[in-house]
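Review form for a predicted model. The reviewer records the input and the model, then writes brief findings.
Reviewer: anonymous (R2)
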Amino acid sequence: MPASISGIFPALTTPFEKGDLSSSQLKSNIEKFERIELSGYLVLGSTGESVLMNDRERIKAVETVRASASEGKTIIAGTGMQSTRATIEFTNLAAGAGAQYALVVTPFYFKKQMTAQNLENYYLEVAEKSKIPILMYNVPKFTGLDLPIKAILSLADHPNIAGLKESSGNIALMGELIKSCPEDFLIFQGTGSLLFTSLMLGARGGILALSNMAPAETVEIFERVHAGDLDKAREIQMRLITLNERVVNTYGVPGIKCALDLLGYFGGHPRPPLQPVDQETKEAIGHLLKEARLL
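Model under review:
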């Protein structure tokens, strides 16, 4: 297993130009992010519109991020599919393209059959046959189901299940998991508004859509919590809460891409059926960025 990871990982957007994956713009965004002490990058997460891409594009995105990032940065790839077999196959393809960890979302299409036991079986088989360690991914706002705590605790001792990205927004669950899971089980917060609180509870870091817009600020929250400068860490978190709630949770991927354009990165258009934000929303996002002292 690779060295244990911690810190801040942006859940990267995927740039498209004329409807096609733009490796050059993805490379350009990474080169800008490289100026900041991020721990690495998540490619092909929810923010990356991975469900709207084909496997060829997905692998190209992983290869581009790995080639563009400095050697010390850890690359996590979202590899979860709806079938166990497809997840294993794509995880190993992503490993060959340079991913060091796989982020595996819960299968959700047949959600009524996704019992704790079936989810345990799924993650166990994926972990057994994956060439890289996996992080489980709980994101009920997209999947419509919660990964049961019973299943998480049962899986936390597996040598190839490195940890969990917890994106339910349930801070009590975060605390219960940190208390109950083995010390070397890596628990990351996936909700930007809860980064400070989760770090105080003992989370290893954040894998965050918010870090596209506020990479330096989310890194500073992490660093100041670990340095004991809690007042400053809290002040930065409070400054970012409204931005996260409005842009990430309300406007979603189109809003995040608009914010990136305003901040000098390449956001561009989302892939249909998602549509770009309108002018009124663009102006509102600009105002939110100014309020957060990012623009």
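Findings: The chain has a mean pLDDT of 97.
Further findings: The two ends are 40 Å apart (CA to CA).
Recommendation: see findings above.
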